[in-house]
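Sat 14:20. Reprocessing the chain from the morning session after the first attempt stalled halfway. Input below, unchanged.
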Amino acid sequence: MKIITRLVIVLNLYLIHLNIVFALSTSKIREVTTTTTTSGSSLPTSSPSITSFDKINILLARIVQLQPTSSPSDYSAKITCDDPSILPYVQAYVTQDSTLIVSATTDCDVLIRAYTYQKIHIDSVSKLTMTDYSYKGYQLALISMGDANIQISNIGFDLAEFNFFGNGSAKLSGNIGKLTIVSRGKGYVDATNIATPSVTATLTGSGSLQLKSTANMNLSVDGTGNLAWCSPKMPKLVEKLRQNPMAIVVSAFAAFGGFLYGYDTAGTFFGALLGYPSGDFLGRRWGLIIACLIFSIGVSFQVAATKLPLFVVGRVVAGLGVGIISCIVPMYQSECAPKWIRGTIVSAYQWFITIGLLVAAIANNGTKDIQSYACYQIPIGIQLIWAAILSVGMFFLPESPRYLVMKGHIDRAYQSQAKLNWSTVDDQNVDTDIKQIIANRELMSKYGSGTYVDCFKMGPQKNLLRTLVGIFLQAWQQLTGINFIFYYGTYFFHSSGIKQPFLITIVTNIINVGMTIPGMLLMDKLGRRKILIIGAGGMLVCEYIIAIIGTIVGQSNETAQKTLISFVCIYIAFFASSWGPTAWVVTGELFPLAIRAKCMSLSSASNWLWNFALGYATPYMVDPDKGNMGSKVFFVWGSACVGCLLFAIFCIWETKGLSLEQIDYLICNSSPMSSAKVNSALRAGTILEDDLVSDEPKHFPKKTYDADIQMPTISGLVKTTNVNVNDSTIMAERL
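Finished this time. Tokens:
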């Protein structure tokens, strides 16, 4: 009986409330348009005009949409309902204190057009949307009492105050001079897209509140909720560069070793084979320093030589240094560079090679008319400058953390990775990176001890296939015929009747330098496979055209000469942006850690061996008293590019955007033809972290998406630290 009595009392009070509201509504100064519809049909309505309202009080509705109006007289509140029978319960009017009152039902939607207002009171609304309000000099205040889903976008106010007492969610964006947010319920509030120089936030409930960090923040927590803030959004590239700046600087500086390659010299084949003991026993860092010392000794012999024997000895000694550098630099870069930009950074090694070729050509041109020993001492002696820069710089750079893990120096590996990450050894990202390297090393140790024999064992890790791919990739790079242009270009252009052939050689070197840059920038966008395939196709077309024109039209025709020069330049552009840098990128990241230095030394030695072989054989192919092939030699290079194309299609895995440990997983669980699918799965997070250290084959969905998302690792998860703000301990998340 008591319960029934209380219900009767509450019902009477509610009826009295309705009567009072109805009486007030008939005597108000301002009214608004009220429209009800059913199944798209309109009912009779009244439409008295209103002049303004400064506050909005929404008691009940389903969906409320606020729209701005530039005209102070264009105010309205349009209500649409599913059922016309509820019309008597719908109310919308303006009180004497300029407050718009809206009381509908859960089956009605409200569209409000307003010029400015001071406060919005939301009591029970399913959804509120508010877009494109921007009124300087005004303030916005919103109170949400129910479970509304609030979407506020692109607003602009000097002051804004949001009070959330219910359990709904809110997503806010815009520019606010001073922002105040109070969350007392269980709802989720996302204000990370509000730009403001000052924010005051209070969290007393059990909900979640996310903000964008700013210079002036006053935060208070007195509850079980989660208060978080994130840094302002930056351009994606800038944000990524800020994540690992030291790693990028370290690996990019090592590319300077390409300058020494660019001069080319004897003894490089054996130097490349010495890259394994230098890189594995001395370390990547000290191996480069010792290689620079050996190179400098050889250069000093050449500068001091006035007789041929000492000069030849100097060439061989310097070649040993260059060979070691060509093995260790791409390996050191790959092990230190962040995975999202590794291709670009390792490509920089090839870029410095092209710069070295250009500088050497310019220096030779500038000293060719000197009638003394200085004609060769100056261009050769310049090399000491580049060696000094590289060796001194390496004293200050950290050792490769992967090399340190391989050697069992775990503590030093943590220190090195911390330097590369520009953080501390206690950083969770550092801990995760090192643990993944350790787990991968332990997995790979199951299949071999890391000897030369292991390089030629197939097994689950496909070491034999990897080794052969690295060796033949460097061989095919030389077989494209690029060094014919740079070694014998002057002779070829001269024999073709072209005036100033040396100037043309300088131009081709400039093209080589300039067109390497697009390849660097696209390396981590298009991917290794696509770049190699496109480059091989472009080169073979150009070389066949050169051969056909030179054979059919002849080389004495002026038009034919210009055409030859044009297609030679286009051919160089294709090489410089594809096979030039990509060969070093792929070989630097292709091999397992235990045998990486050994396989890298074999592939680098292959490059130098074919470099020497083609340089030695070319005169016999083109000299008038020998092969006298002339332009027909490009049939040979074009046919070789057909082999390059097939090799890229059937033998190259797509490794863009993956860590070296992920690449091991990719190769073990895919073929080159299917690698793009597995690559996408790894980068999109379809393959979990635990799979990387499992030796069981995995199966993947037929369709994956090439999303530009890092694989979810521990380092990619939200980090938490305890932060004391206003004597309250809160959970600060780095988003």
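Residues 13-50, 695-735 have pLDDT under 50 and may be disordered.
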